[in-house]
Design goal:
Helix content of chain B: 10-25%
Shape of chain B: elongated
Number of strands of chain B: 26
Distance between the termini of chain B: 66 Å
Shape of chain A: globular
Structural class of chain A: alpha+beta
CATH class of the largest domain in chain A: Alpha Beta
CATH topology of the largest domain in chain B: DNA Polymerase III, Chain A, domain 2
CATH class of the largest domain in chain B: Alpha Beta
Number of strands of chain A: 15
Radius of gyration of chain A: 25 Å
Number of domains of chain A: 3
Oligomer: heterodimer
Number of helices of chain A: 15
Radius of gyration of chain B: 25 Å
CATH superfamily of the largest domain in chain A: Reverse transcriptase/Diguanylate cyclase domain
């Protein structure tokens, strides 16, 4: 059976014995379809806790809980704490009752975001088809990348997790299959530091005894509705006629029919319909300097506008986010009459929101965004009677955009952005 | 306090009071109406701290006195009483209850001490004049649709009432705008109003004022200071703070050089706009006006839901023009025309458009076009 050593990446066509013939490692993964499958789900193991342990090696062998803060719940715990029964989303007092010796640290999001970006960079080297689900998990479509990387997807994934361990100090588990639904199920089978494969051949036998609860979007309520119709497992679901399911559950029914057969045609794509577009900056030093903040507001508005324009989108709501030195968050939003993608309008609205907040700095972070995203057909279509210059500024911005498109990003910039 | 009052008179007085009271209230006394009985009248006073309304009604006062009860509850009770009932309100001043009795119905409402009720400070009004109800009705009815709801531009959240030069001399003028459309309505300047300071009358006050203006025969006593405005009839006194802000210089917004003139029957036009905009589900429906010699084609093209077109005979004698507008805005300004044809004056597809009723310069509307 085709096998792969996850330590030395040796590819073995037919394995004899239980260890790698080259390096002697027992960390082998074997599957008949191992070298042909190409849709993967990568899920980091106890991500926040791993990052914290990396930052402070003294914590390595101690049970660690990341959480607390304002909500007083466990946001992540390491595997040592999990042995004691601690789970994420558990109230802190309960977690500490189960595991009194645990070290509790407050989440440091910036650190996790930074590590997440680094992981993303490693994945970017493999394929452009990446769909991040959160900071610590993502789908990857490695179809057609075998010749480029001179290795089948399974090998690339093994290398990826290895690099994550050695370069970033975090571990992850891989699920490899032929669609997103199964890849995500697979990544959960062999945690932590796992590598699990669900092939086409065993898809149905694998699913049959499993609870329909595994389906994304089937929560307790949906599960109850399904149970009323006698559907507990995938086997139950597979017995249903396609038309009956559709009649009973509408569009969801159609989806269920396919999932019952392990079919999932969703593409791995980062171009999911956007709910919002936002950019933010964390300062090296907290600042209350209005000129400096104003410069940031403009640059952020411009970035947001660039992204909206690039996707032919516009937003009906402008948002402002400020994080004060003590980490308290201030967020403000303002709805516009017609959606916008013009940096000048985004900036002016964000600036008005900023002024309305008043002097509450110093701030450690500032962010500007657009929400209630729509297509840009109706964007900036009506002028402002009281601000006749607005139209000219919008036209100037479009002209500047055209110049930048032709001569490069730095060809023309606003003086304001140099502050 | 012990009074008897006819149900209809009570309902009228209490309903005005309860509409001033804010529904969501954190200060309990502000949910109440202050009832004061003396001589042969009873007075109902309600406030949201920005607006105060005092309503007087004739009543048989057996025992003078004052108390406060929930405005909404009292209103609901009175509303549900049978027509023609005599209602008695009794407060012994000790039990903390107001008895409301009518026929076989009897209610007890908890009261709050009258001393806690905030009475709006009287102010020195610089200008006092009298205006006929229909004059004020026209000024505010025709302008209020353009009031902005945008909180960031709080100074647009009302009607700017001031004195200005109009057709044939000094005028009493009301202007409202939200940046997308503007209404400017003039009336003959009442005697004594010449030195009136310009004030921004808040949206809610405009709504409350409207209830004073239904009867054509009513004369309204208007008093204005820099910070307050008061409208009074013999029965009702409405006092309101004005918006503390500067209304923008609207005169530069009103185009003067628009030469392309279209004259159209206002109700035909509104009906056509309404029909073609049906196909679009967008929140801001754009209607395209295509003008040619004596011919107007209204069209809507909504890629997701469909398209519509309607032709209308108009008087137009200029070069071809295509211009888009928000359908709602067009409907609203066309709806203001009540006597004559609507006369639109265009410049280009990107410039503000002017609309008037016939040749009447006392009501002018401006609307900003949309890109289509």
């Amino acid at each position: 059976m085709p096998s792969l050593c996850r330590d030395c990446f040796l590819q073995i066509e037919s394995l004899t014995g239980r260890r790698c013939p080259a390096c002697g490692s027992p960390r082998l993964v074997s599957h008949p379809e191992l070298f042909t499958l190409s849709i993967a789900h990568m899920d980091c193991d106890a991500f926040y806790a791993s990052v914290e342990k990396r930052e402070n090696p003294a914590l390595r062998d101690r049970p660690l809980i990341v959480g607390g803060g304002t909500r007083g719940v466990v946001s992540t715990c390491c595997y040592i704490a999990r042995i004691k029964g601690v789970r994420s989303a558990m109230p802190m007092f309960q977690a500490l009752k189960l595991c009194p010796e645990a070290v509790v640290v407050k989440p440091r999001m910036e650190l996790y975001v930074e590590t997440s970006r680094a992981i993303r960079a490693l994945m970017d080297e493999l394929t452009p088809a990446i769909e991040p689900l959160s900071l610590d998990e993502a789908f990857l479509d490695l179809t057609g990348t075998e010749r480029l990387h001179r290795a089948p997807p399974a090998v690339q994934l093994a290398r990826l997790t290895k690099r994550m361990e050695t370069e970033l100090g975090v571990t992850g588990s891989i699920g490899l299959s032929h669609n997103k639904f199964l890849a995500k199920l697979a990544s959960d089978l062999d945690k932590p530091r796992g590598f699990a494969v669900i092939g086409k051949a065993e898809t149905e036998t694998f699913l049959r005894p499993k609870s329909v609860r595994l389906i994304w979007g089937v929560g307790p309520a949906a599960q109850q509705a399904l149970e009323k119709s006698g559907i507990r497992t995938f086997a139950d679901l597979a017995r249903w006629d396609r038309k009956d399911l559709a009649a009973r559950f509408g569009a969801t029914g159609e989806r269920l029919w396919h999932l019952a057969r392990g079919q999932d045609a969703r593409r791995v794509s980062s171009h999911e319909p956007l709910k919002s577009i936002s950019n933010e900056t964390t300062f090296n030093e907290d600042t209350a300097d209005p000129d400096l903040l104003d410069g940031h507001l403009w640059r952020l508005a411009e970035k947001v506008a660039d992204r909206a324009k690039a996707r032919d989108l516009a937003g009906r709501v402008v948002t402002l986010k400020l994080k004060r030195a003590d980490f308290t968050l201030i967020s403000r939003r303002h709805a516009l009459r017609d959606p916008t993608q013009i940096a000048d309008r985004i900036y002016r609205e964000a600036r008005a929101l900023f002024d309305a907040v008043g002097p509450r700095g110093p701030y450690r972070l500032i962010g500007v965004g657009l929400a209630e995203i729509t297509d840009d057909a109706q964007a900036d279509s009506s002028g402002d009677l009281l601000d006749p210059e607005a139209r000219k500024r919008a036209e100037a911005e479009r002209a500047a955009d055209a110049i930048r498109a032709r001569f490069g990003k730095q060809a023309i910039v606003k003086g304001r952005s140099l502050r | 306090m012990k009074i008897s009052i006819e149900r209809a008179a009570l309902l009228k007085a209490v309903s005005q009071a309860q509409s001033v009271v804010e529904r969501r209230n954190t200060i309990p006394i502000l949910a109440n109406v202050l009832i004061e009985a003396e001589g042969d009248t009873v007075q109902f006073r309600a406030t949201d701290l920005d607006i105060e309304v005092v309503d007087r009604a004739p009543a048989m006062v057996e025992r003078a006195g004052a108390t406060t009860v929930s405005a909404v509850t009292l209103h609901e009770i009175v509303r549900k009483l049978p027509d023609g009932a005599m209602v008695s309100l009794t407060d012994d001043g000790a039990s903390g209850r107001l008895m409301v009795d009518a026929g076989r119905s009897s209610f007890q409402l908890t009261t709050l001490p009258k001393e806690d009720f905030p009475v709006m400070a009287t102010s020195d009004y610089e200008v006092n004049f009298t205006a006929d109800a229909p004059v004020l009705r026209r000024l505010f009815d025709k302008s209020k649709f353009a009031i902005s709801t945008e909180e960031t531009r709080y100074y647009l959240n009302g009607v700017y009432m001031h004195v200005a030069d109009g057709d044939g001399g000094r005028k009493l003028r009301c202007v409202a705008t939200d940046g997308h459309r503007l209404a400017r309505i003039d009336a003959d300047l009442p005697e004594g109003a010449e030195t009136m300071p310009g004030v921004i009358v808040p949206r809610k006050t405009v709504g409350e004022l409207r209830k004073l203006l239904d009867d054509d025969e009513t004369k309204i006593a208007v008093s204005v200071s820099e910070t307050k405005v008061r409208f009074a009839t013999p029965e009702i006194t409405l006092t309101s703070k004005v918006i503390d802000g500067t209304f923008p210089d609207y005169s530069r917004v009103i185009p003067t050089g628009n030469t392309k003139v279209m004259e159209v029957d206002a109700s035909d036009f509104a009906a056509a706009v309404d029909r073609v905009s049906t196909v679009s589900s967008e929140r801001s429906r754009a209607v395209k006006l295509s003008l040619d010699q004596d011919r107007l084609v209204l069209s809507v093209n909504a890629p997701d839901s469909g398209a519509a077109e309607e032709e209308l005979g108009v008087a137009y004698d200029d070069e071809k023009l295509e211009i888009g507008f928000n359908a709602k805005y067009l409907l609203e300004i066309a709806g203001q025309v009540d006597r004559e044809n609507a006369v639109f004056r265009f410049n280009s597809s990107g410039d503000p458009t002017l609309m008037q009723e016939g040749g009447d310069g006392s009501a002018v509307y401006v609307v900003m076009p949309m890109r289509v």
